[in-house]
Specification:
126 residues, mainly alpha, two-stranded antiparallel ribbon, 4 strands, elongated, disordered N terminus
């Protein structure tokens, strides 16, 4: 988690601090989340983690785009390990966003699991 000393003031909400080091995709998610919602400090920590996860997904996708879906190893061709990691990161991001009640960004629809379809303890009891 980022401490308050590693934060910079954001433009979207007066007084709200934007975590330092977010790339474009993470910053876009942060802006969307903080423009539309009010958060407690523990929820902001989860939102920050979702933003960093979004940045990681973009980085992993770029690696696969550059290196290809398949890698050649001494045991033959295999799927690039970044594929599996990106899938795991998408699940993490979807669960964080579902926990916070944030719908996916329009650009993520179809590339990430539907937050409403996920199962787990984050949904609350009825």
């Amino acid at each position: 988690m980022t401490t308050s000393t590693a934060l910079e003031t954001g433009n979207n909400t007066p007084g709200l601090r934007v975590p330092r080091g977010l790339a474009r995709a993470g910053r876009k998610l942060w802006d969307a989340g903080t423009d539309d919602y009010d958060w407690a400090s523990h929820e902001l920590a989860m939102l920050e983690e979702a933003c960093r996860t979004r940045d990681r997904i973009v980085q992993l996708d770029k690696i696969v785009e550059h290196e290809g879906l398949m890698l050649t190893s001494s045991q033959g061709s295999r799927v690039h390990p970044a594929i599996a990691e990106a899938r795991q990161q998408r699940l993490v991001m979807a669960r964080l966003l579902a926990t916070l009640g944030i719908p996916p960004l329009l650009e993520d629809v179809g590339s990430a699991p539907n937050a409403r379809a996920l199962r787990g303890v984050y949904g609350g009891r009825r």
